[in-house]
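Input (structure):
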């Protein structure tokens, strides 16, 4: 996490986030015989985000831009269902 206070104005804040998720090879947890269980391979995904918070009395707001699975790697959930590829999210909030 990288935080920059006083961005553009003294009450503004800019925060940058970077993270990753790593899952090692494992077998599906469903009940059944071992030879029929699905093996989920090792997965590595990366995410990044940027949040800008502004504070102008009496209002306060923020904008967050996030990107998941930056490398568009194949990722699966616990049941072997493929998770979405690269995705972008924008969140806007305002307090009045």
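Output (sequence):
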């Amino acid at each position: 996490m990288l935080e920059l206070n006083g961005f553009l104005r003294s009450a503004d804040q800019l925060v940058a986030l970077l993270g990753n998720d790593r899952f090692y090879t494992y077998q599906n947890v469903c009940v059944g015989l071992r030879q029929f269980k699905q093996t989920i391979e090792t997965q590595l995904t990366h995410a990044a985000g940027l949040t800008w918070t502004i504070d102008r009395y009496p209002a306060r707001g923020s904008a967050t831009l996030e990107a998941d699975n930056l490398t568009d790697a194949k990722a699966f959930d616990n049941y072997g269902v493929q998770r979405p590829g690269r995705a972008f999210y924008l969140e806007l909030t305002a307090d009045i």
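Notes: The longest strand covers residues 43-56. The chain has one domain: 2-95.
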